[in-house]
Amino acid sequence: MTEPLSRPTAVRLGAAVLAVLVAVLIPASPAWAHNSLKTATPARDATLSSAPHEVTLEFMQRLDPAFTTIVLTDAAKRKLPTGEPVVTGAKSTVQVTDALPNGTYTVAYRVVSVDGHPVQGSYPFTVADPTSSAAPVATVGASAPAPSAAAAVVESGGGPSAGVLVAGAALAVLVLATAGLVWRRAARR
Question: Global pTM?
Answer without folding.
Answer: 0.57
